[in-house]
Amino acid sequence: MIHKLGMEDREGVVIKDPTMIIEPIKYTSSQAHNGELEYAFTYPFDFGRAFFFSRVIREGFLAYELNETEDEISNRTHKLGESILYPMINTIKDIAKGNPASEDTLIHVDDLKEAKNFARHLRDLGVVATVHSFGEGKAIIRREHQSKSDRISNFLRGGLY
């Protein structure tokens, strides 16, 4: 069931005791773990060790509980590694080219003025955000992660971790 949910881009399931005597059990799909890790490693340094470790541990137990073959485990480890390294490498390459670490979010708005007001609201909250594009009631809000850009740039110049 978890595999099927993952194939449908769904996160997983939580099984709860109706009396709440037994703690809930959460089963999360590999696709959800990989997606969370991909996001987290696109912006390294933001998430703590516990965030990463818990997802890797879940993957190990999921492989065990599903009694996966060596080929299935190999495929799982390959996907897990790609979720970690590709987004980080792509961010490093972008910053090395002079681009900032940024994140785009799609919002639905009535007009460009509303999108600009939302970006201004984010800036008032201390978030570096701009309207990247607008069309047909949809706006892309681009958030810049300056601290990540600065830290990665420091490493690229030979700074230490």
Write a concise synopsis of the structure shown.
The protein has 161 residues and is α+β, with helices and mostly antiparallel strands.
Roughly how many Å apart are the termini?
Answer: 42 Å
Order of helices and strands: HEEHHHEHEEH
- Number of distinct helices: 6
Shape estimate: globular
* Unreliable stretches: none
- Category by helix and strand content: alpha+beta
Report strand order across the widest sheet: 3-5-4
Which sheet architecture does the biggest sheet show?
3 strands, antiparallel
Query: What is the CATH top level name of the largest domain?
Result: Mainly Alpha
Our count of domains comes out at: 2
DSSP helix fraction: 40-55%
Taking all Cα atoms into account, the compactness measure Rg is: 20 Å
Strand tally is 5
**What is the CATH fold-level name of the largest domain?**
Methane Monooxygenase Hydroxylase, Chain G, domain 1
Mean pLDDT: 89
